[in-house]
Every structure is written in structure tokens, then in C-alpha cells.
Amino acid sequence: MPTYIYETVEPNPTRFELKQRMNDKILTHHPETGVPVRRIISGGYGMIQKTAAPSASRGGRHSCCGGCGCGGH
User: Fold this and answer.
1) Which residue range(s) make up the domain with 4?
2) 7 within 8 A of 17, measured Cβ to Cβ
3) What average pLDDT is seen over the chain?
């Protein structure tokens, strides 16, 4: 279940986190105080998968081959 960050909409905004299902409605008010809130969009976590060896089908090249500077080209 993802954790979302919300911020109160007032002169001194405060942030809080709330675990919600992805299909739950976005909050419009703080669950305890009733103060209007907005959801903050933040960066997520990515997953990096490393392989033991480059694939022979790519001619021995590294899987990224996009000029990343990793030296696997």
C-alpha cells in the first residue's frame, strides 16, 4: 500500500503522510481536523536490475547503450 504526502492549505502549511490504496479517492480535507489539504507529488522509487554479463545478442554491448558513460559500450 503506497504512502502519500498531503499538505494543509493554510498560511503555515503542514505535511503529513497517509497510507492509502491506489484506488482510494484523494483527500480534500485532513482526516482529523477537517482543514483543506492537497496531495503533494513527489519522486518515486525505481528499481534497477543488474545483470551478471552483457547479452551476446547485443554484440557484447552493455544493455543501456545510450551513451551513459558506464564504459559498457
Assistant:
1) 1-42
2) no
3) 79
Residue-wise pLDDT for 1-33, tens only, equals 889 999 999 888 999 999 999 999 999 999 999
CA 10, distance to chain mean position in Å, is 26
For the chain, what is the domain count? 1
- The arithmetic mean of pLDDT across residues 24-48, rounded, is 87
| Residues forming a β-bridge with 3 | 19
Q: What is the dihedral of CA 26, 32, 33, 39, to 10 degrees?
A: -20
Q: What is the pTM of this model?
A: 0.56
Residue pair 8/36 in contact by the 8 Å Cβ criterion: yes
17 domain-assigned = yes
Residues 24, 1: Cα–Cα separation, whole Å: 11
As given in the structure block, the three cell numbers for residue 10 are 493554510
